[in-house]
Structures are given as structure tokens and as C-alpha cells.
Write a structure and sequence with these properties.
Blueprint: E1 9-13, H1 17-28, E2 32-37, E3 48-51, E4 54-57, H2 66-74, H3 80-83, E5 86-88, E6 91-97, E7 103-107, H4 110-120, H5 123-148, H6 155-173, H7 179-186, H8 190-197, H9 216-222, E8 226-228, H10 233-245, E9 249-252, E10 256-262, E11 265-271, E12 276-278, E13 281-284, H11 289-292, H12 298-301, E14 315-326, E15 333-337, H13 341-350, E16 360-364, E17 378-386, H14 397-413, E18 417-419, E19 425-428, H15 430-436, E20 468-470, H16 481-498
Helix pairs in contact: 1-10, 1-16, 2-16, 4-5, 5-6, 5-9, 7-8
Length: about 525
């Protein structure tokens, strides 16, 4: 007897982490899965840039929430240790500020971080940090099930899922407060407010507009950060290999130009070559803004609204360098703060310009905790936040040079000297990200997480079009490698649930979780 699931054809569009996870899960469940990707390799925003003959991670650089991948792989009889080599990071990030010779390490060990904060600022701030950690743990435990592991909630379902204890946790946080104001209740030292306010940028947002619930990002990091042998691209390559082992038919350098409908339901996709691939279901793992702009054809465009420029998340100006570094004791992850933090977000979100006093993140990819790079020239990714206007504004050379000059000056003021030749640097600007990720305008995190209602604003895995499912960082539960992976798992679970007519009205919940004993 033939397997009815094996006869069901699914096309996954886009081999970012969300698409890779959807394809892998669906193929493992027995569906006929074809994965089409415009690029030559898997990864999406996980990408490397070749600089001076070496590959430098030029997208996500942090691996967290490994439980998302462990639980998914366990269902397939595998584990992360089977497909990747991971090294835990003890120094989560080293932070420096203009105007002070001090730097502050946030450590994987919470007690050690509290001690470091006490030495850096005051014993009282060390104690406040411990209370902050207690609240972020409670917040994460309250929100993991109803938000991270569940299909997109609405207000009523969120209240129901949270229960009395969860609602009390949110009430204690001040759910309508913005992140910056809430951090001001925890820390008296403005540098610490600045440090933890930066977690809003992990979702492409401003600390002055992001909800206080984004404090939970601190808990995600404190639960573990790992470096990946071979760089983050190895994560995408390993997931692609698992998918192909389970039957995913991967087709790279194939641009999807249309999602096709028949009588209002998905019937397949058309490629730039003119080839049509018939499908019973399609998982779209691209920026959801591309659908509203009609980049996947007119048939689905009417079901989606274009994303307004003012609602887009952050983009970035990056420099991938193969450079000599001296002076400052770099670790894997480093953050350099300027004096006027508010001006950075005012420039980006109000003035729509490259920031004059932008924070600089540096990923030193040949370093581990306190260790020398061990090479004469090391691989560095320097990133400054920028507005996502890449489809409407090309920053001119004067703007770019000013931003680069200001960034290098900030690092020098903090003690870091960088030396490179022109061929040892590759810049990437919002207009470049807009070309790489169609429909995004250069936004790297979908829509900005601004306002307490933003939790309900992202698209669900269930799209308005029958047979079309959504995955990736622009849809629920949000941006970042583990969240994109979870979106892929949710898209696959929702598709499978819809094959059972008794499950259509039931919200999908992924079992397990970091907070599960």
C-alpha cells in the first residue's frame, strides 16, 4: 500500500534556517519535499564573505538556544554533537565605553558576572544584576510556551496560556513599559542600562520603543552561548545535509518568481527558468514583505500588505576585515559604546541616517575566552546599526566614510587599533542587504519589535492563502537563528496538523523547551 504522505508534494522556498528546518522535519515525516534556493549555498542570512582569501562570517555570529536544535534532531535519531563541533563561550561579551579605560565582561556564570559588575560599577549594582537575572528567568519561563514554542498568539490566547503566575510575572515587569524605562528601574549606572538595552537590537529595535519583555534575551544568553567550528555557515550546511539524508531534494541557484494558485489554493511554484514545480503545499522562507510587494507573483500579493518603511527593523553597515588588531584585549564578542546612546536610534529611526555615534559590535572569529588569535591577521566582523532604507536610498560615499571614520575612532578611544590594506576589507550596506534579501529593504529582523502589541503583529505560520505556510525571521516567533529555526518547526507542525481535519482550529505547540525540567 502506498504512503499517502509520501505522495504529498511540498516546495520550500528559501534555504535559510527556517526553510532548512521545515524541509528537514517534513521530509522526515514522509512528505515529498523540494527545497529551492536562489543562492549557491544554504544559509540565507547565515553567510560568509571571502576577504583576502579567507571566509568571514558576515551574518549571525552567535549560537544560542541549542535546545531548539537538539529536540528537533532527537526526533530524527540524531544530535548536535553528531553534526557540529560546538565550544561553550565563558565570556559572553566584552564591553567598552568611550572615555573610560575600564571594560566589563558579561560571563556565562551569573555569580561571576555579578562580581564583575560590582567591581566595574558598585556592589549595589552587582546585587541589582542578580535581581535582574531572577526576573528575566521568570519572564522567560512564563513566555516560552505561550510565545516561543506556540503558533502566534492573540491577546486572549496569551492571557489564557500565561495563567495566574505568568500574568503576575508580566504585571511585576510593567508590560506596557519600554525596555529602556524598565532597565532604569533595575540599574542606576547608565552604562549598565546601555549594555542591557542593546538586547533590543537583537530584534532590530530601539530600546526606547521595544517592550520591556525583551529583557528575556538576557536569559537566553545566560543559558549558554557557543562558537561553531567552521563558523556559523557550518550550521546551515549541517542542517542541509540532514535534510538531504531524509529525502529533501535541494535545488540551489534556482530563483522562485511566482507562487501559483489554482481555485484559490496553492498549486506550485514557477522558477525564473520558466519551470513549474507542482506542489500541494508551499513553505515560504523569505522576508514576508516580498509577498506584499508582489515579488512572488500577483496571485498571492493581494493577501499580504507591504511593510511600511517606518515599521522595518534595523539594517546594518558592516566591515569584514582580515586585519592586525592590537591594544584592546579582544574576545570572541566585543561591544564598543559611545556616549550618547539615544542619538544612535534617533538618527536611525527618525532621521533615517547612518548614526553619528553608533555602537560598534566586533566579532573576533579567531578568538576564544581571553586567548590570543594565534595568527598575524585575524578575521573580524565590525557592525554598526543602520536604517533599512536600502531599496529607497543609496548611502553616498561621504556618509559611508563618516560612519566608518566615527566607528574606527570610537574603537581607538577604547584602545583597539586595526590595521589593514584595501583588499583586506569588504563593506556591506543596507542597499546590499536589500539586494541579498528581496522585499526587506535591507531590514535584517523583519519588522521592528516596537510597542507591547508587537508580540501579536508578526505573521503566523498559517498564511491567509490555503496551502501557503510562512517561516523565517520576519514571521513569528521572530528573528535570530534559533527563532528562525523554531519558525520552521512551527510551519512544518502547522502543515502536518492541517492534514488532520480535526486539528484545524487547534493552535500548534512545539513540545519540550529550555524551561522544561
Amino acid at each position: 500500500m502506498s504512503d499517502p504522505l509520501r505522495a504529498r508534494r511540498v516546495v520550500v522556498v528559501g534555504a535559510g534556517v527556517g526553510g532548512l528546518c521545515s524541509a528537514m522535519v517534513l521530509a522526515h515525516r514522509g512528505l515529498d519535499v523540494t527545497l529551492v534556493e536562489a543562492a549557491a549555498t544554504p544559509g540565507g542570512k547565515i553567510r560568509q564573505t571571502l576577504v583576502d582569501g579567507v571566509g568571514i562570517d558576515a551574518g549571525p555570529t552567535v549560537f544560542t538556544m541549542r535546545w531548539v536544535f537538539e529536540q528537533m534532531l532527537a526526533e530524527m535519531g540524531s544530535s548536535l554533537s553528531d553534526i557540529l563541533t560546538l565550544e561553550p563561550i565563558g565570556v559572553l561579551a566584552r564591553h567598552a565605553w568611550r572615555g573610560t579605560e575600564q571594560h566589563l565582561d558579561l560571563l556565562a556564570d551569573t555569580a561571576h558576572s555579578a562580581d564583575a559588575i560590582a567591581r566595574f560599577s558598585s556592589p549595589q549594582e552587582g546585587k541589582r544584576f542578580l535581581e535582574f537575572c531572577r526576573q528575566t528567568r521568570a519572564l522567560y519561563a512564563a513566555l516560552e510556551k505561550p510565545y516561543i514554542r506556540s503558533e502566534r498568539p492573540n491577546l486572549l490566547s496569551m492571557v489564557s496560556d500565561l495563567g495566574v503566575d505568568g500574568l503576575a510575572t508580566l504585571a511585576g515587569l510593567g508590560p506596557f513599559a519600554n525596555l529602556w524605562r524598565s532597565l532604569g528601574r533595575h540599574f542606576h549606572d547608565p552604562r549598565l542600562q546601555q549594555l542591557f538595552g542593546r538586547y533590543a537590537t537583537y530584534c532590530g529595535s530601539s530600546p526606547w520603543s521595544a517592550p520591556a519583555t525583551l529583557m528575556l534575551v538576557a536569559q537566553v544568553e545566560l543559558d549558554g552561548v557557543w562558537s561553531v567550528k567552521g563558523g556559523m555557515l557550518a550550521v546551515a550546511q549541517a542542517l542541509a545535509a540532514v535534510g538531504e539524508k531524509h529525502g529533501v531534494q535541494a535545488r540551489y541557484q534556482q530563483v522562485c518568481t511566482q507562487i501559483l494558485l489554482d481555485k484559490g489554493r496553492v498549486s506550485g511554484v514557477q522558477l525564473a527558468s520558466g519551470e513549474v514545480i507542482a506542489a500541494d503545499d508551499v513553505v515560504f522562507n523569505g522576508d514576508v514583505g516580498a509577498l506584499g510587494q508582489g515579488l512572488l507573483g500577483p496571485a498571492v500579493q493581494s493577501s499580504f500588505e507591504p511593510v511600511a518603511t517606518r515599521k522595518r527593523s534595523l539594517s546594518a553597515f558592516t566591515m569584514a576585515l582580515h586585519a592586525k588588531a592590537s591594544g584592546f584585549p579582544l574576545v570572541r564578542h566585543n561591544v564598543f559604546f559611545d556616549r550618547d546612546y539615544h542619538s544612535e536610534f534617533d538618527d536611525i529611526f527618525r532621521r533615517r541616517s547612518l548614526p553619528r555615534q553608533g555602537t560598534v559590535y566586533v566579532c573576533a572569529q579567531d578568538r576564544s575566552d581571553g586567548a590570543d588569535a594565534g595568527v598575524d591577521r585575524e578575521r573580524l566582523l565590525c557592525l554598526v546599526n543602520a536604517p533599512a532604507d536600502g531599496d529607497t536610498h543609496s548611502f553616498d560615499p561621504g556618509e559611508i566614510e563618516a560612519c566608518e571614520s566615527n566607528s574606527l575612532a570610537l574603537m581607538r578611544h577604547c584602545g583597539l587599533e586595526l590595521d589593514w590594506q584595501p583588499h583586506q576589507r569588504v563593506r556591506t550596506l543596507p542597499q546590499d542587504f536589500a539586494r541579498l534579501f528581496p522585499g526587506s529593504g535591507g531590514a535584517l529582523y523583519g519588522t521592528a519589535t516596537h510597542g507591547w502589541m508587537s508580540a501579536f503583529a508578526r505573521h503566523s505560520a498559517r498564511s491567509p492563502v490555503p496551502g501557503l505556510y510562512l517561516a523565517g525571521g520576519s514571521v513569528h516567533p521572530g528573528p535570530g537563528v534559533p527563532m528562525a529555526a523554531m519558525s520552521g518547526r512551527l510551519a512544518a507542525a502547522t502543515l502536518m496538523a492541517n492534514l488532520d481535519s480535526t486539528s484545524r482550529s487547534r493552535r500548534v505547540l512545539i513540545s519540550g523547551g529550555m524551561s522544561t525540567p
